[in-house]
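Input.
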Amino acid sequence: MKLVVNLFVMLGLLSCLGAHAADPVTEAINQAYAPYRAALFRTNSKAQVESEQAVAQARQAWQSVRERFAAKPSAPYDSDPEFSASLNAVARVYEQAAGEIGQGKLPQAHETLEQARDIMAELRRRNGVIVFSDHMNAYHSEMEHLLEQGAALTSSPQAMLNLVKRVGVLEYLAKRLRSEAPKALQGDAEFSAALQALETSVMTLHRAAMNQNADAAREALGRLKGPYSRMFLKFG
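Output.
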């Protein structure tokens, strides 16, 4: 329950604190986030050549951010003493991941790349900046935790009741993806279809849990990640 409480605290802060992306640094980071998402996706799909290309593009995009802003960031990052250190930390993550990809260690590289997401999210949090990716990250965190506990949560009728509670959190986070989507995405047909697929995957799991159907719940758990990954790659 501690994780659930932390998620709601974080989302409360997202609702009432900070500013939405409207500054040059955040916009640059957002642009560099697209090739980063591709690198995450490729390393997770075990594609060697594509992973090498994706991480190279992500490194190049991030280097552009460092060259433009590391020495003199604009507001609201201009009062953050850890700003340059955070940019450098992301660069080191890319360097390590590139080495691991070169050695054919794609699962390890994927885990390494995950660290960059956390560094960027913490950089924004420190400076009161909110972007849609923060809501995607909140959903991803709860989804991964749910998948890790999937076997335990479908092991008995009592466990299935706990699963119902956990799915409730995931449903809430999915609703946040809809309510907090930028206006540019709200009218995008491809975004709407991707979000609908994600919401359907959660609803299917909720239905199975409510019906105390362990087999259906395990199948639904296995189908959570696909819709999220496709949405993250394009819009996350």
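The longest helix spans residues 157-179.
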